[in-house]
Design goal:
Herpes Virus-1, 10% strand, 82 residues, three-stranded antiparallel beta sheet, little secondary structure
């Protein structure tokens, strides 16, 4: 089950569970669309995998399976993978 992390690892922007602005890799590294597009070129800086839109867990399911509250932030921010 996805953690549904609450923030962008690059800029620390809040990404609520219902955000359409959240992208993830297969390891659930989480980034906002702006960082994914402009800084990362849709490539995870941690594993090198692609970034895709994070699925949205239905509100009813969030009651039983809440999103994570653990914030993950890359020390020093993100750098481009060019």
């Amino acid at each position: 089950m996805l953690d549904i992390r609450p923030n962008c690892e690059c800029c620390d922007k809040d990404l609520p569970a219902d955000s359409k602005d959240a992208l993830i890799c297969t390891f659930e590294c989480t980034f906002c669309k702006l960082c994914a597009e402009t800084v990362l070129q849709y490539k995870c800086p941690n594993c090198g995998g692609n970034l895709v839109e994070r699925p949205i867990r239905p509100a009813k399911s969030l009651e039983k399976y809440p999103a994570s509250t653990d914030r993950v932030l890359k020390e020093g921010g993100c750098v481009s993978h060019e």
